[in-house]
Design a protein that fits this description.
Strand order of the largest sheet: 5-2-1-6-7-12-11-8-9-10
Number of strands: 12
Distance between the termini: 14 Å
Structural class: alpha/beta
Strand content: 15-25%
Shape: globular
Largest sheet: 10 strands, mixed
Radius of gyration: 20 Å
Helix content: 40-55%
Order of helices and strands: HEHEEEHEHEHEEHEHEHEHEH
Length: 296
């Protein structure tokens, strides 16, 4: 019987490359993830024929340039990981459309984002669109990942795939994990579970599950008021090596993260962000369901 976990493990890692300086770093990150998961790597370059990123349209590089970029990316991945199955795809669709379609058959989508620090806009339009709509977890980065700092988890208070991915990355990189949970002060007439004490108990219960699977991960709990979300995310972007968060139906996590990429970061590069879409399957829950089925 195939579990959800076994199915997702077979899905490719997809990486989008363009003329960004971060493109080859994207390939490095994606190739490492593909090897770890034991799945193929798909490298995608979108060449729509026109560059629409500015006010005035200008003819972009021709298809030969796009193919050359893909060849370099494939050679880089194969040189770093001999034996890794690598496929390159050149598409005439926009980058957002092409990568969105491929996210439906991927276990991870990796992209860089344009450096818009001078305009303080955060991520570019492609990264922002995919953050809201990708069917699989999306890793957005600004360049070579830092090897210092903790993994920061935006914990929802429930057992989710987001929590598992954060624990897994922390374990693989021997990094401490900081689990941040937002609590809301109770108002007259509200249930007592809306208080800080209840939030602490929910967070402890969730982390206990992760601690059973990844006992060697050092975990720090941090409860914050909802008014401190933006400040906390900005600090995480400066000091951590990865921020892991669920997208959520309201999308506030995305907006805070993308606008915090350059806000008060200074000369230090902002950390990468891993966004997990709603409903992404939990491996531990799938394994538990499979075990229960087997016992029946």
């Amino acid at each position: 019987m195939q579990t959800i976990a076994s199915v997702t493990e077979k899905l490719s890692v997809v990486v989008g490359v363009d003329d960004l300086p971060t493109a080859l770093h994207s390939v490095d990150i994606a190739a490492d993830e593909a090897v770890r998961r034991g799945v193929p790597l798909v490298i995608v370059h979108a060449w729509p024929g026109w560059h629409r990123g500015t006010r005035y349209r200008a003819v972009a590089a021709d298809r030969k340039d796009g193919r050359h970029l893909l060849d370099l990316a494939v050679q880089r991945a194969e040189h770093a990981h001999p034996g890794l199955p690598v496929r390159a795809e050149l598409t005439d669709d926009s980058g957002a459309k092409a990568l969105l379609e491929r996210s439906g058959q991927a276990s991870l989508l990796v992209i860089g984002h344009r450096d818009t620090a001078g305009r303080r806009l955060g991520w570019g339009p492609t990264a922002t669109y995919l953050a809201h709509h990708s069917s699989c977890p999306l890793l957005v980065h600004q360049g070579r990942a830092t090897s210092r700092g903790p993994v920061v988890l935006a914990a929802s208070g429930r057992h989710t795939a987001t929590m598992e991915l954060a624990y897994d990355f922390a374990a693989r990189t021997t990094s401490p994990l900081v689990a941040v949970h937002v609590w809301t002060a109770g108002h007259p007439g509200q249930a007592r579970d809306s208080g800080r004490g209840a939030a602490e108990r929910r967070l402890a219960d969730v982390l206990a599950v992760g601690g059973t699977r990844w006992p060697d991960v050092e975990v720090e709990r941090l409860l914050i008021n909802e008014n401190d979300i933006a400040y906390t995310v900005q600090r995480a972007m400066r000091r951590s090596r990865l921020l892991v968060a669920g997208v959520g139906h309201k999308g506030w996590t995305i907006e805070v993260a993308r606008r915090s990429t350059f806000a008060d970061v200074g000369t230090r590069q902002a950390c990468a962000v891993l966004l997990v879409p709603p409903g992404w399957p939990s491996g531990l829950l799938a394994q538990a369901a499979s075990a229960n089925t087997a016992r029946c």
